[in-house]
């Protein structure tokens, strides 16, 4: 019985492929999974040193690279040609090497660092403009 159960689980989960219309997909785990719904186009910030862009102000970690989107959620990667989906589960080993070589924590740090750098530059420019008006 145990062997049959493992075989059924292997058949079911070994071929799991999510391709759900309307920008939604279920994470592996079925009923307990999390829906991916992106209702408006995310904003991205370019990370020049890494060669990809990362979403800002989005509830999801999305990397834009080579005309594709790669979304990370709950330990799983998904990819799509459109930010609305359909999203397909992607093994980490199948991510583009430029993304795969970074941990998600590092990608978030790159995004935050670049965002803060640009924000500080914009603030410094505003301060300089205000000082020039005085």
Automatic annotation (TrEMBL):
Residues 118-134 have a biased composition (Low complexity). It comes from the Bacteria. It holds the Pfam family WXXGXW. InterPro entries: YXWGXW_rpt (IPR024447). Residues 111-134 are annotated as: Disordered. This is Uncharacterized protein. The lineage of its organism: Bacteria, Pseudomonadati, Chlorobiota, Chlorobiia, Chlorobiales.
């Amino acid at each position: 019985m145990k062997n049959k159960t493992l075989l059924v689980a292997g058949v079911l989960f070994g071929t799991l492929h999510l391709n759900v219309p309307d920008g939604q997909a279920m994470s592996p785990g079925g009923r307990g999974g999390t829906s991916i719904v992106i209702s408006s186009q995310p904003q991205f910030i370019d990370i020049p040193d890494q060669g990809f862009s990362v979403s800002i102000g989005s509830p999801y970690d999305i990397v834009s690279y080579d005309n594709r989107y790669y979304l990370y959620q709950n330990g799983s990667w998904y990819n799509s040609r459109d930010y609305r989906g359909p999203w397909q589960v992607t093994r980490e080993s199948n991510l583009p090497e430029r993304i795969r070589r970074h941990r998600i924590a590092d990608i978030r740090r790159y995004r935050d660092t670049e965002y803060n750098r640009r924000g500080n530059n914009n603030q410094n420019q505003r301060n300089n403009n205000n000082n020039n008006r005085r």
